[in-house]
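Please check both lines for our workbook:

___
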Amino acid sequence: MMQKSQKTIFDHIPDFIDYCDVERGLSTKTQENYSRYLHKFQIWLKLKKIQNLLPHELTADLIWQYRLYLARRQDIHGKTLSRLTQNYYLIALRALLGYFVVKDVECIPPDKITLPKDATKERSIKFLTLEQVRKLLETPQTSTPSGLRDKAILEILFSTGLRIAELVMLNREQFDSIFTKEDFELGIIGKGNRPRTVYFSNRALHWLKEYLKTRMDKEKALFINYRGRSQEDLRLSARSIERMIKKYAIAAGVPIFTTPHTMRHSYATDLLEQGVDLRSIQEFLGHKNIATTQIYTHVTNKRLRDIHRQFHSGGRLDNAEPNTPLDEQLDSH
């Protein structure tokens, strides 16, 4: 039975984040995102001078006012939030209302927060072609320790589809046996504490071996920052890897939007274009739901449509010689 809570929405948010961690097992990154998006809602409540609002006092009208705030708010450059970004804030608020339902706290139903139907159209997958990937992978100067490290990182990202958070947490001890193996697979715990196996190509394994041969230190981390101080944790950060990839993208002349996640998208897109079924790609990527993986079909579907338009648009029919049977003309090609 639903009960009215005497705790403000403000006071419930830390409990909601704990719930996401303990009961739902959501990743640290997801918890951080929820906290950040709900902080915006807290700011709005303060601006409205209703920071002491109780869950059952949140009305559809207040939610509408919050949506207007998200849609019209401008940053220091005069830009408003994209429809997709607005969605993230609304999804976080809807998740909080879902938490209230689970805990029998009286509140407005979560489904009262609807998302714009056209917001998903803004979402797009950015990936590199195989030729662009090749250029990027060939950019690091492997004659230096840092260049060799960077080469290994890029090869591994494209070979395995690892998320950046998964990559930076790898330790050397997980690869103790690679020097006696021709191929290698590794079990990891990914997003949402879901276990999966990632597979290393011969190329990635070769460059990882070359990199590890240069490691004379006793650091635990697989990839380290050579510029760090000896007394510090030298584990290479996700931000450092992002900057490194951006540097190589510029040097290689590939799209500047290239990030570690672009490599993951490129990995998945390449698999799909080679005919790998969607369920297998879901396993490779560690997606909980097949719906998440299906976004890649939009990429390949568009490319197939472009190919169809280029090679089978009907133009050949218009140019067919009138005195030659059409099937003979087609057979001749």
The CA atoms of residues 282 and 289 lie 8 Å apart. The first helix runs from residue 9 to 22. Confidence is low (pLDDT under 50) at residues 322-333. The beta strands are 184-189, 195-200.
